[in-house]
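ok trying this again, last paste got cut off
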Amino acid sequence: MAETPAVPITLEGSAMLHQIFRFNWKAWRALSPAEQQRIGSAAVHKLQDISEGSGEGAHSALYSQLGHKGDLMLIHMRDSVQALNQVELQLAQTELYDYLEQTYSYLSVIELGLYESSAKTYSALAARDIQPHSPEWNSAIQETIDRQAIAMSSRLHPPIPDFTYACFYPMDRKRAEEVNWYLEPMAERQRMMHEHGMIGRRYADHVRQIISGSIGLDDWEWGVDLFSNDPVVFKKLIYEMRFDEVSAKYALFGSFYVGVRVPIDKLTNWLSGSL
């Protein structure tokens, strides 16, 4: 029997960029009302162009960031990392950018892990004694990827959910001496991820979740975005998941960033101190 690989098949979709900015309110207040209006209106038009004029699958959303970590959070989805870089360059050309200091950013790609499909595909290939990574193996894996990518297109290239609140945080799986996620057999990881996912499904009516992979792209391994009209749901969902084996034993979490959605055409309201 051919040996089964430890790495599950993954599907990749839209590229994502999170930008956290601190706003220089002191310098902004030193401007005349006319200058504030001119700069704010120009920024609105540019952000609308960026969000609406970049083709199908291009989405950007603006949030008023809570707490000391920043004042504004921008979430961008594009069809490539290059397109995300173009967004950064376009934003940098606005006068409003002179009053923004980027305090954090996160680059990732929407990811779906296919543990169940991987197990079935690997087992079927092993039963036929097809060697991993041989041309026949690679062809079969690509067929699975192509079929699943079509079936899951809406999850790989979603719009940014139109909810009032967003919560973003990066995370890792532990690779310490005592516990190491990557040394667990794939069947065990599949079982734990299934149980983990069942918790999220119970909250499906109240929260939307987007998981993005960032191994090789940023400092953590995954990014998690949660969207809801009730921020308390973030607390309840994540708290319940803390008791789940995959989180309790193997998860490490970065900082949490929570924002209130600001429609782009209301940015000038935010600049004047209201939502």
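PB: full thing came through this time. The longest strand covers residues 9-23.
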